[in-house]
């Protein structure tokens, strides 16, 4: 392709499958959708036909509603064949939520990276009835608006176990460089990072399918967040490193099956867009930090739009990720403000 006619991003399907229904996007590969109770109101899941049963990729959040939809799918599009394996791309609840249910109630094998499994199981067992002091300290250090902090403190803390089915002991590990057979195809396993640690992506050797989970999405950027568990994390650097490493694998004709939004082609273009978008956001943020600011005061240069209340939490952890990155590379200084917030200022 010459530079005057760069490959474009195309969407072979303009509409997602209806609830309880599936779209066959390649031979033996079904695309399905499950609802989410948040601004991003859905997650994509996939089923790959192994002949005697199915391998499912990701599982939705744990709820009676979601499991009811799974029962409809199992009896309908999945033709009554058993789910023998549940493959989880990463540890977030919308992906791992019903993995334990498939293990416990359907006898399925759970396949995940070691880090994904450890995080998911640890977080489901770590139930907090009251806000941990470390979490409140983290929110204050990020400059969370006092009104939003007070509203959060009045509610019971979010617990992983609220949206993730109990996970029994035992899983099968996948790691970088593995090859796994699913749906009559051999898939190379390549680990992403940044959105979630040791995030699995799968690249078919037999056709042009790629399962990217949330590492690469078609029309939104993966959330790169920092949390109280690792307040000095640098997921921006982790994500950029992973994308630069995965980029040589991408071809324009790859059909990309992501965790949200629509399947698409034009993966090299999309990866370059996403990488450039983060570099652009970092440049805008650094320019804005001529004036000292807390992470919570950095939404405008980062997102270039008004952040609604339901988006505030995700926006805040992403803002922390970007100021952390600038701090790690030595581009900004940080000092404590009287209210406990870290404030960042461009050097020089």
Secondary structure layout plus pairing:
Blueprint: E1 23-26, E2 29-35, E3 42-49, E4 54-57, H1 64-75, E5 83-87, H2 93-96, H3 99-106, E6 109-112, H4 114-125, H5 133-141, H6 146-154, E7 172-173, E8 179-182, E9 185-192, E10 199-204, E11 209-213, H7 235-246, E12 255-258, H8 267-288, H9 299-303, H10 312-328, E13 332-336, E14 342-346
Parallel strand pairs: 4-5, 5-6, 6-7, 11-12
Antiparallel strand pairs: 1-2, 2-3, 3-4, 8-9, 9-10, 10-11, 13-14
Structural description of this entry:
With 348 residues, the chain is α/β, with parallel strands linked by helices. Helices cover 32% and strands 20% of the residues. The chain is built from 10 helices and 14 strands. It has helices at 64-75, 93-96, 99-106, 114-125, 133-141, 146-154, 235-246, 267-288, 299-303, 312-328; strands at residues 23-26, 29-35, 42-49, 54-57, 83-87, 109-112, 172-173, 179-182, 185-192, 199-204, 209-213, 255-258, 332-336, 342-346. The strands form 3 sheets. Strands 1-2-3-4-5-6-7 form a 7-stranded mixed sheet. The chain is globular. The model is unreliable at 1-5 (pLDDT under 50).
Question: How would you sum up this structure in a few lines?
Answer:
The protein is of the alpha/beta class and 348 residues long. The chain has helices spanning 64-75, 93-96, 99-106, 114-125, 133-141, 146-154, 235-246, 267-288, 299-303, 312-328, and strands at residues 23-26, 29-35, 42-49, 54-57, 83-87, 109-112, 172-173, 179-182, 185-192, 199-204, 209-213, 255-258, 332-336, 342-346.
